[in-house]
Amino acid sequence: MHTTQTALQGHIADFGMDTITLAGPLEAKLKAVRAAGFGQIMLAARDIVGHPQGMDAAVQAVRDSGLRVTGFQVLRDFEGLSGHLHSYKVDIAKQMILMARELGAKVLLACSSTSQHAVGDMDAVARDLRKLAMLALPHGIKVAFEGLSWGRHINEVHQAWEAVERADMPNLGLGIDSYHQFATATSLSLLDDVDPARIWLVQLSDFMWQETRTVQERIDTARHFRVFPGEGVHTQALSSLVRKLDGMGYRGDYSFEVFNDDYQQLPLPVVAERARQSALWLAEGVLRRSVPLPGAMRLRAMSP
């Protein structure tokens, strides 16, 4: 049994969960993720600052869990601002970088700005991202820049990559989220120019309808109605995305970023088990990384 469990964990070594998917206190989330066989966790700032015993206790809980920290999220609306708004965001970024360092997170996720006050000039955006990367560099933190599908000026992955290239910092790379890729119906061919060695993080989720017809529906779906890969209607598209990234040479982490109000009402082990089944489907059915396991449970095909 121990050998089988170890092998199953090996299958999903590249996959992790986001704490935002789970209800309850931080320690319970960490325990459920670990018990499901995952070896890593993506942390949200609210898990840390909202801990009833304070940030030090939260950091200790993460360390005691034995889980590797995939990354820390999320810095919002950083680029394209000026004056006091820019100074304010720099202060926020500094604090988040320090928190990431304390947690042992090597990646800080930053999302493209939705602010009405942000300018779209790509030189200004690149300048701001360069500053953010320089703030993170002394702490050994990488910055993954992700284009939100409702971003004011940058809302697709190739636009985010252009900003990363212009900023030209060794610790600045790309964050890719499958939800935003599908919400904007962005062609996979637009990933062809992306350097896979500069992709710091890939977050995966699906949802239950084919398209989001308005910006508000896109936002609401993203924040309340995501499901695990293999549970929604974009199974084929998600498989194609993961295979595309793998074919490009991406060998980094995949984390399940699943905002779902229903999952917040379910027992933690139930949700974590759904995540485990999704990870096994991706590892064995999509990436074909399985090895024969005598007597091991066969992976059930996940319904489209």
Automatic annotation (TrEMBL):
Species of provenance: Ideonella margarita
Transmembrane segments: none
Protein name: Sugar phosphate isomerase/epimerase family protein
UniProt keyword annotations, A-Z: Isomerase
InterPro entries linked: IolE/XylAMocC-like, Xyl_isomerase-like_sf, Xyl_isomerase-like_TIM-brl
One function term, GO molecular function aspect: isomerase activity
Pfam family, one: AP_endonuc_2
PANTHER family associated with the record: HYDROXYPYRUVATE ISOMERASE, XYLOSE ISOMERASE-LIKE TIM BARREL DOMAIN-CONTAINING PROTEIN
Record domain Xylose isomerase-like TIM barrel: where: 30-283
